[in-house]
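Bench notes, afternoon.
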Amino acid sequence: GANTYLVGYDTLAGKTGLVAVSQVNGNLPWFGRKWAKGNASPVGSPVGDFDLGQVLAKQLGLGGYLVQNDHTRRKLSAANHNLLDNGGAADLTGAAGHYQWGWNVPMYYQVYEDDTYVYETISLGGPRKGFWNYYIPVGSRSCAGYATMDRTNSKLVSYVNDAVQYRGGNNDASLDATYKSQLCKPATNMDISSFRTAARKNGTLWFANERVMQYVTAMLKRIIFGNRNIQASFNATLDANGLRQGGTGQGVGLVLSKIGMQHYEAAVPAGAPELMGTMLPFASTMIRALIGGAGFLALMALQKDLPRLKAAFHDRKGLTYVAILTLFGPALGVSLSLMAVQYTDAGIASTLMALTPVLIILPYAILYKQKVRLKEIIGVTVSMVGVAMFFLMG
C-alpha cells in the first residue's frame, strides 16, 4: 500500500534507505483535472483515479481544526464548528488552540502541460514518478480567512474572542469604551513585516499572509471542484462520475450565514419570546443591508458620486420600482432563503434555490406568451427527478 516501505540500496549514492512500495509498483493513487488550451471555459475534465477524486476531501481531512502552537490539531465537526469531530464542545476563544481550516494528510502536487492540455494533479503516499513534484505537508490557515491581533501579547492569532485585547483599533485603549465606526479603517494598522513577527510569536512555522497557503487553498478548490472559476455557485449534486462540480460561491455564503445565525441563536436569552428566533433571518438580512449600504456610500463618496445619489431621490417612478424590488428581493427573498438555511441543511436549501431558473419557465411563458420548447420540458423533468432523488436517497 501507499504507507508500506521496503529497504532499498542506491548504487550511485552508495546509500541504504526506505522506498515506498507504491513508488516501486507504480500503483500510487493520484487524481486531478485538465483544462484544454485555448478554451475559455473554466470547467476542467477529471484525470487519474476517479475513486480517489470522489473522496479526496475526506482523504486529506479537509475541514475545521483547533490547532495548538506546536501544530497538534483536533478536527472540528463538519456540521457545526462549535463541536469537535467526536461530539465534544469546541472552544474557539483560543483556550484550546487556533481556529483554523486545513488538512491533516501530506500530499504531492504536480502541474504540467502537453500540446493540448494543462494539468493539475495530487498524489497521496509519495511523489509521481516522471513528474516534478511539490511536497505539501500538513497545514492550515485561519478558518475565517483572516487573523486577529492579540494587543496584550503582540501576537497574531486565529481566535473568536470579544475580549478587549482582541479588538484591534491600532491598540488605542481610548476606543475600547466607545462606539465609533471602523468602516473603511484598518482594525490594526501594521505593515506585513510586523504581522509576520507577531505570527511567529506563536512558534515555528507560523506565518502571516502566506501566499503559498493561498495558492494551495485555490489549487485544492480547482482540483476538487474541477472549476477555475471558484466563485461559481455551490452545487450539491455530483456529476456523472460522482465528482464535485460548481464552486464555493453562494452555497458557501449560505453555510457561513447559517453559522452566523447559530451564534445569534446562542445569544438569545432563554426566556425570550419564540418569535425572536423566528425573526433572526430578517435581522441578519438587515445587518447585511446596513453594512452593504454603508460600504456603497463610502465607495460613492470616494468616487465623488454622492450628488448623483441625491438626484436619484427626485425620480419618484424609479424609487417606486426600487422599493418594490427591494421588498421582494433583499427584504423577503434573502430573508426567506436564510430562514430555509436556519431550518434545514445548507446543501438542501442551496439546491432548491438553484432551481429558480427552472421554476420561472412556466410564469415566463404565460406572461410573455412564449412557447415552451421540448428541450426545456426535458430539462425541467431531469431537474425535478434529480431533486427527488436527492431527497429520497438522503
